[in-house]
C-alpha cells in the first residue's frame, strides 16, 4: 500500500490518503532526526544554532531539544504542536502549528525530506493539519514563505489559502470555516 500508478507518464505518485500525522514524541523523534540529517538542510528544519556546520553532534542535540520543548503541545510553553508526517507508514517530515497572539489563530510551517518532495505529500499533510487545527478550536491558519518557494506556494494555494505578497515574503491565510467541508 502507499503507491499507485498515476498520469500518462506512468510516474509513481503517493496516494494522498496514506499520509498521516503523529504528534512528535520520544518514539518518532530519532526517525525524524534521521530523515532531517539525511535529506534536509538544518535551516529548513530548525532555528539557527551556534554549532559546527552540517549535521554535527551539537546540531543533532539541538534538534532533539527544539522538538522536546514542544512535546506539551498548544497549551505548553511554546504554544506549538509538532507532528511527524508519515507516508506509507514511514516518517518523511514534520508539520507544526503554533499559537498566534489572536485567539483562534495558529501559524503553520513544514518540511519534507528531499525524496518525499514533489509527490503531493505536502498538500495532504497540510489538509490533515487543518483538520487538527479545526478540532483544536482554531478558525484561522496562517503561514509565511517566500515567492521563490514554488512548492510551498503551490501547497498553500491547493489548500485554499488567500495569498498576499509583501516584498519577497508571501503571507498566506486559510480560514477554516470556508476551507473545510461541513461536518
Ligand atoms: C515546500 C514543501 C513542503 C512542498 O511539499 P511537496 O509535497 O513537495 O509539494 P507538492 O508535491 O504538493 O508540490 C506542490 C506543487 O509545487 C510544484 N513544485 C514543487 N517544487 C517545485 C519547484 N522547485 N519548481 C516548480 N514547481 C515546484 C509541484 O510540481 C507541485 O505542483 P502540482 O501540484 O501542480 O503537481 C517541500 O517541497 C519541502 O519540504 N521543501 C523544503 C522545506 C520548505 O521549503 N518548507 C516550507 C517553508 S515555508
Structural account:
- By secondary structure, the protein is of the alpha+beta class.
- It has a single domain (3-179), classed as Gcn5-related N-acetyltransferase (GNAT) (Aminopeptidase).
- Helices cover 32% and strands 32% of the residues.
- The chain is built from six helices and nine strands.
- It has helices at 26-39, 42-45, 57-68, 121-135, 150-158, 176-179; strands at 3-6, 11-14, 19-23, 80-87, 90-99, 105-112, 140-146, 162-166, 169-175.
- The strands form two sheets. The protein has a seven-stranded mixed sheet with strand order 3-4-5-6-7-9-8, sandwiched between helices. Strands 1-2 form a two-stranded antiparallel sheet.
- Strand 1 (3-6) and strand 2 (11-14) form a beta hairpin.
- The longest helix is centred in the last third of the chain and has 15 residues, at 121-135.
- The radius of gyration is 16 Å and the shape is globular.
- The model is unreliable at 1-12 (pLDDT under 50).
- The chain binds coenzyme A.
- Coenzyme A binds at residues 44, 109-112, 117-123, 145, 149-152, 154-155.
- Residues 44, 109-112, 117-123, 145, 149-152, 154-155 line the site of coenzyme A (COA).
Amino acid at each position: 500500500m502507499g503507491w499507485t500508478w498515476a498520469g500518462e507518464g506512468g510516474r509513481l505518485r503517493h496516494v494522498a490518503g496514506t499520509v498521516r500525522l503523529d504528534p512528535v514524541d520520544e518514539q518518532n523523534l530519532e526517525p525524524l532526526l534521521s530523515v532531517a540529517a539525511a535529506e534536509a538542510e538544518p535551516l529548513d528544519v530548525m532555528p539557527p544554532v551556534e554549532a559546527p556546520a552540517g549535521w554535527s553532534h551539537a546540531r543533532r542535540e539541538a534538534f532533539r531539544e527544539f522538538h522536546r520543548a514542544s512535546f506539551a503541545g498548544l497549551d505548553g510553553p511554546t504554544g506549538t504542536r509538532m507532528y511527524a508526517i508519515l507516508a506509507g507508514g514511514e516518517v518523511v517530515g514534520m508539520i507544526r502549528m503554533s499559537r498566534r497572539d489572536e485567539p483562534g489563530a495558529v501559524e503553520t510551517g513544514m518540511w519534507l525530506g528531499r525524496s518525499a518532495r514533489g509527490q503531493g505529500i505536502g498538500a495532504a499533510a497540510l489538509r490533515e493539519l487543518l483538520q487538527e487545527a479545526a478540532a483544536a478550536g482554531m478558525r484561522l491558519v496562517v503561514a509565511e514563505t517566500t515567492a521563490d518557494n514554488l512548492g510551498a506556494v503551490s501547497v498553500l494555494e491547493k489548500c485554499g489559502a488567500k495569498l498576499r505578497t509583501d516584498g519577497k515574503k508571501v503571507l498566506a491565510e486559510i480560514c477554516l470555516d470556508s476551507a473545510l467541508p461541513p461536518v
